[in-house]
Amino acid sequence: MNARLPRRATVRAVTALSALISLAGAATAAEPLLIHYNDRPPQHYMQRGVPQGPAIARISAALSTANIPYAFRNTPAKQQLVLLQANDKPACMLAWVDIPGRDRVGKFSDVIYKDEPRGSERRLWCTNATPDETMQRLNAALHQQE
């Protein structure tokens, strides 16, 4: 007894399997980039459960322009450092200053805002698991806003 499938059935099965693999990859790629922030009014804060402020608006606009799905999470600064050290998935922390040595732990975006009156440049500090291509698209979108 020959248990082989007819050629058409085999082609259909391979095509269906390829489509499923593609869909699974697309679902993974569409996972939102988590943007962790802590309250620093007036630049970024939560009001009635919704992130607010000019820094939130700027980063939201840049991520939308770059076609990067994202979600905000209100996260204490110490927990943000734990997430950076864990480096287990793409994520960014809002409003960190690029000081020597921090680039060993993560990747910095271009400037989001300048902290007044000190003038320190605040950026996204992203895990090393964040793809370089994502960082490039984000930075290009930030430049478009200038």
Could you describe the 3D structure shown?
The model is unreliable at 9-28 (pLDDT under 50). Helix content is 40%, strand content 28%. Strands 4-1-5-7-6 form a 5-stranded mixed sheet. It has a two-stranded antiparallel ribbon with strand order 2-3. The chain has 4 helices and 7 strands; from the N terminus they run αβββαβαβββα. By secondary structure, the chain is α/β, with parallel strands linked by helices. It has helices at residues 7-29, 54-65, 77-86, 132-145; strands at 33-37, 45-47, 50-52, 70-74, 91-97, 106-115, 120-127. The longest helix is centred in the N-terminal third of the chain and has 23 residues, at 7-29. The radius of gyration is 21 Å and the shape is globular.
Keywords:
single chain; 146 residues; alpha/beta; two-stranded antiparallel sheet; 4 helices; 7 strands
| Number of DSSP strand runs | 7
Biggest sheet descriptor: 5 strands, mixed
Following the backbone from N to C, one meets helices and strands in this order, namely HEEEHEHEEEH
What's the alpha carbon Rg, rounded to whole Å?
21 Å
Distance between the termini: 72 Å
Report the β-strand fraction as a percent range. Answer: 25-35%
How do the strands of the widest beta sheet line up side by side? 4-1-5-7-6
Number of helices, where a helix is a run of at least 4 consecutive DSSP H or I residues: 4
Are there runs of 5+ residues with pLDDT below 50, and where?
9-28
**Mean pLDDT, nearest integer?**
86
Looking at the structure, what is the overall shape? Answer: globular
Question: Could you give a short description of this structure?
Answer:
It contains 4 helices and 7 strands; from the N terminus they run αβββαβαβββα.
